[in-house]
Amino acid sequence: MRTLQQVRDAVDEIAASSPSRLFLVVLFLVISVFTALLSLPAASVKHTVTPLHDALFTATSAVTVTGLTTVNSGEHWSLFGLIVIMVAMFIGGLGVITLASILAMAVSRRLGVRGKLLAQQSMNTNESGRLGEVGTLLRIIITTTTLIQMGLAVILIPAYWFEDRDLGDAVFHGLFYAVSAFNNGGFVSHANGLVGYEHNLLITMTVMVGVFIGSLGFPVLMVILTCRHHVKRWSLHAKLTVVVSIILCFAGAVVLGALEWDNPRTIGEFSFGDKILYSLFGSVMTRSGGFSVVDQNELNPTSMLITDALMFAGGGSVSTAGGIKVTTIAVLFLAIAAEAKGHSDVRAFGRRIPEGAMRVALSVVVLAATLVTIGCALLLWITKEPLDRVLFETISAFATCGLSVGLSAELPPSGKYILAALMYAGRLGTITLAASLAARQRDQRFHYPEERPIIG
Amino acid sequence: MRTLQQVRDAVDEIAASSPSRLFLVVLFLVISVFTALLSLPAASVKHTVTPLHDALFTATSAVTVTGLTTVNSGEHWSLFGLIVIMVAMFIGGLGVITLASILAMAVSRRLGVRGKLLAQQSMNTNESGRLGEVGTLLRIIITTTTLIQMGLAVILIPAYWFEDRDLGDAVFHGLFYAVSAFNNGGFVSHANGLVGYEHNLLITMTVMVGVFIGSLGFPVLMVILTCRHHVKRWSLHAKLTVVVSIILCFAGAVVLGALEWDNPRTIGEFSFGDKILYSLFGSVMTRSGGFSVVDQNELNPTSMLITDALMFAGGGSVSTAGGIKVTTIAVLFLAIAAEAKGHSDVRAFGRRIPEGAMRVALSVVVLAATLVTIGCALLLWITKEPLDRVLFETISAFATCGLSVGLSAELPPSGKYILAALMYAGRLGTITLAASLAARQRDQRFHYPEERPIIG
Ligand SMILES: [K+]
Ligand SMILES: [K+]
Question: Which UniProt keywords apply (chains A, B) (predicted)?
Fold first, then answer.
């Protein structure tokens, strides 16, 4: 009992002094547990021990809700293995949302009363103290996310039953895809994933909507659930997230659709309506669902580059989506717009965005670009594969997107460890960096004299 | 006479109201003139009319001091053609430096007295009014740059004489490489360029030093010429430029050298000393000289990616180097460092960098990344070539670097026009954008209420 108390005290102390570090350790431990579970003979169809690099890669991919795979999920893993992956995605998704929420709250606390009120508004906790405690927060997160995933399963289970006429299978696959979609997990429980079901719009469009909802992030979901269509009452964060998400989805769909319109190896032989629907599907999946109905290797190089950019952008903050996050992009573009108009304030929807937020956004982008460049350079060196494929898989891993050109499966163990490290860094890096930077911002009493270098 | 007066009035008016627009038009006209000259039969060895896309590409490449070529300069162009190219580089280099200087001065004027003094300090014009007029400025620029180029020629002419034992040839090539090096022009007057002369360190190292000096930029040269080793008296701009340039050169040399150390198709079979020297040479050339002694196609993919990053970075402001410029990078990294330390001010060398400078830097980077992405996507679409090669040539064009994997020569006319447009945009885009943004910055009286979105 005494030891337990000591452990709890130690955890409390770390949580108070450095929540980011605690979460980095916890995520590592959770991945280790799932690596062990996936290594069990019972987890594979052949009842053999899965090699460490594949078990670790899959566990990392599932817990970070990325969806990249080194083995064919539907063929390699047993039902037990697939359930382990599903649970890993559920726990990973929940963990990421909880962690990011706690950090956002911690930032608001350190920024003082005014900042606190504002961050609470973003989290939609205007009611005093409702989300004051981590326990309450966790309860609300679990309730909300579980309900949404159950809602998706309720649509997917009959859809799969209608397709395959096997209730047991349909329940399993329905649940699996519901969890995988909402958590932006990207894992599939069939050998061919969604390929072969692309004619069933009930399945693919439900998955698409699930991914989109999941990618908006918890604070935005709370705002929408509470304020609904009263957009004026939405927080700035919710408005920015929704607007940028919609712009990216539709712009991505138009560009990708136009580029692939006549490509017979992707959507070229689909019907007119399906071409449009699956362009939107493809665009939403870069936000970072990671499902696909076409082989990403067959995209033309221009589409791959556009997909790279969309994956790098990612989804909403405090969500299971990865990437640099849409608000980061919004803040940077608003700063540039302010610059172009000669405004000294960065404005959006009648609000001023503090300068500090812009510097945090900048740091996140530079960290992301640096990690992707280093990861890409290492994998180029290891594989000697063309940049197209290596960059695609690197960004997909970093942005925990899970779209794949199949490079993951071809890599030697060293390459798999690099991608796993990228998933880990991509999952927690931007969140913890942004939180720790934002928490440090404070005013300066002493100023150096100003001098302006020439830029550009 | 009356018409001339009207034209002059119109030019004066445009120059006063929008110097950037004037320069965009002037550059276009200058390119047109050199396109016409290079189209003349006398300009080619075969005495035939060079196709418009090749003449326009070469003229753009020479005037923007890029150095990309669609035809082998030493084989296609006659002596007259090569002299036209040399003059185009000389005028182009001079024009860019003059333009950028005038814009930097205009910015300082609009930012008010305090800003003016500081910008003058950057231009090293503490003596009252010494550079107050464009005429005086132009005189100083011409004198300084011509003297440096003559200095380089004085070393290169005997070196080529010693190599080839032909005084006339040596004078021509010496002058050509002096102009090409200092202006970061990247053009060569031999069919194989510097390949075949890599054993003559007097030639290659003189070219390297010329490129490095040229890439620092006019304000830094003036500061160094005036204050010499009294570094404390250097402007912040000069300190940042020199420090970042040196870091990039040596870091680039170490990384590129390590990656290519055993590559027999590049530096792998050089002697130990030459491996080190030519790693440094290769690194300096990304800063944007564009000369090479090895085939860039033979670099391993990792080195190509690192080279991409170094070319994108570019050289100093108000120089003939391209890219986003080293002070832009310095400001962004200093902003991130300030963030990490929790400072609200961005500091360097005991000075505070205004927030506005950071937003300008950010805008420049986003503009550059956007143009490169669009250009790269278009060229991928046209060529269906691998991303490695297309990205390399695209960044080289945008950053007016001139290192080439030979894609320029393989492109259909449409692709050549795209690269020419990128050179034009890369040459003037970042400079004019930065100037017009900086000039617009002003203080705001009315502030919206503050609200902070969640970042990352
Ligand atoms: K994913
Ligand atoms: K150049």
Answer: Cell membrane, Ion transport, Membrane, Transmembrane, Transmembrane helix, Transport
Query: Is A250 exposed, middle or buried, given 0-12, 13-18 or 19+ CB atoms closer than 10 A?
Result: middle
pLDDT band at A131 (very low <50, low <70, confident <90, very high): very low
Residue B1 lies in a domain: no
* Long-range CB contacts for residues A442-447, cutoff 8 Å, separation at least 24: A442/B342, A442/B344, A443/B344, A444/B343, A444/B344, A444/B345, A447/B345, A447/B352
Q: Which residues of B touch A385 (CB under 8 A)?
A: 301
Q: For residue B336, what is the nearest residue in chain A, using CA coordinates?
A: A363
With respect to residue B3, please indicate whether it lies within any of the assigned structural domains.
no
Chain A residues inside the 8 Å CB shell of B339: 356, 359-360, 362-363, 437, 440-441
Share of chain A above pLDDT 90, in %: 34
Sign of the Cα torsion B360, B366, B370, B373 reads positive
Q: Which of A432, A434, A436, A424 is nearest to A27 (CA)?
A: A424
- Can you tell me whether residue B265 is helix, strand or coil? coil
Nearest one of B184, B115, B194, B193 to B145, comparing CA atoms: B184
Proportion of chain B above pLDDT 70, given as a percent: 86
The answer to whether position A9 is within a domain reads no
Contact B453 A333 (CB under 8 A): no
Total number of domains constituting chain B:
1
Going by the DSSP 8-state scheme, the letter that residue B285 receives in this structure is I
- Residue B8's pLDDT band (boundaries 50, 70, 90)? low
Q: Is residue B260 part of a domain?
A: yes
Q: What is the dihedral of CA A199, A202, A203, A208, to 10 degrees?
A: 110
How many alpha carbons lie under 13 Å from residue B400 in its C-beta half-sphere? 37
Query: Tell me, what's the ipTM?
Result: 0.78
Determine if the peptide bond prior to B414 is cis (ω within 30°): no
Is a pLDDT exceeding 50 seen at residue A125?
Answer: no
Phi, psi (deg, nearest 5) at residue A352: -100, 130
The closest alpha carbon to A50, from A10, A77, A15, A29, belongs to: A77
- Provide the residue range defining the domain that includes B111: 16-440
Span from the CA of B224 to the centroid of ligand 1 (angstroms): 53
Model pLDDT, residue B98: 83
